[in-house]
Design brief:
By secondary structure, the chain is an alpha/beta fold. It is 31% helix and 26% strand. The chain has eight helices and 14 strands. Strands 5-4-3-2-1-14 form a six-stranded mixed sheet. Strands 6-7-8-9-12-13 form a six-stranded mixed sheet, with helices on one face. Helix 1 packs parallel to helix 3.
Length: 263
Amino acid sequence: MLISLYQMQPVSGDVAANLAKIAQAAEAASDMGAELLVAPELAVSGYGLSPERFAEIAEGRDGEIIGALSDIAAEFDLAICAGFPERDGDTVHNSAVLVRPDGAREFYRKGHLYGDGERAAFVPGADSPQVFDLFGVRTGMLICYDVEFPEYVRTLALAGAELVIVPTALPDGTISRRVADMVVPTRAFENGVFVVYADLCGEEGSFAYGGRSAIIGPDGDELARAGARETLLVAEMDRTAYDECRRQNPYLIDRRPELYRLG
């Protein structure tokens, strides 16, 4: 599978403008033969909004945002993953959707909210991440901070995931850079999975994003890495190329869960 990743500078609070940017990236990715485009966390709305503004923008799973993303996926014949604020009754979630060209959809709600701003705006997801089929590849979704919890990625790997998609809004800074450059490749390596880590970039109000988006192979090596600016990355996902890596590092097979209990 040819995978594309859109490192994107959001237009804060402007859904139409952000959807137009995603559509432009989808067209370019499709022209290169990509079957999947991954956009960042809250790419449709922007990340640097107040809780009240997120509540205004948030839509349900049958709303215009998801409809527009589905139309883009159908027009350019590729799957699209993007973050959006999801309304469910009186609550708002930090969510991601994956839409396929045929209209089929997968949803995920961020389980680990980061900082006071997210906790004021969103309710954390209550369900474990799920594995689904994407063009014959067993795939799961997480959002940003989730990938920093090894148990969460391991949950997907044990369920058979080969590819983990992670829309993110990683801030600029030395510590954050270590997440992009060290933690994310480690998650790929220790679970034998591909990881697509798609960050925002540039500035949005008082927020500055780190960029450093990456597509990582199951051996922890970078298949593609962005810098600080808006860009489109493309990489080939060759599952058979990493059989020897998994053979030498059979972490999932050699696990002994009975030893991992405290108390």
